Amino acid sequence: MVKECAAVSWGVGRIDLFWVDSDSSLAHRGFEDGAWSHAESLGGTLASAPAATAWAVNELQVFAIFPDGALWNRYWDGQRWHDWETLGGALTGHPAASSWGADRIDVWAPGLDGGLWHRWWDGTRWVDWERLTR
After folding, report:
1. Per residue in 22-69, pLDDT tens?
2. How many folded domains does the chain comprise?
3. Which residues are within 8 A (CB) of 95 and not within 5 positions of it... i.e. 6 or more apart?
4. Domain boundaries, position 77
5. Which CATH number does the domain housing residue 10 bear?
6. pTM to 2 decimals?
């Protein structure tokens, strides 16, 4: 039974759907040219719902909190999926992600301390976590 999912679109007629599979891994399907692709596993061990955003045509990023309390991410560069990498943090709950344009990605997640935390890609690097609420 699927309980948690996220979807993103990087262009006209394209949707990417992500969900937590029964083994706690990330699953993915794409919709293009009027049809859904076969489901694929993107691995990982998710402790949260996924969050996804697209920052350009055929480029997207997906995030999830893992059992270690850190935020982890994978991205599609138009050719392939890159391996999971950690963005750190002491988090809980479910992340949210957005992009306002090419090479700008923002992600938010609730912290174990009760605060709301934010981290972003500025086009060259991931900027350190900042706490947005007290």
Report:
1. 999 999 999 999 999 999 999 999 999 999 999 999 999 999 999 999
2. 1
3. 48, 49, 51, 63, 64, 65, 71, 107, 108, 109
4. 5-131
5. 2.120.10.70
6. 0.95
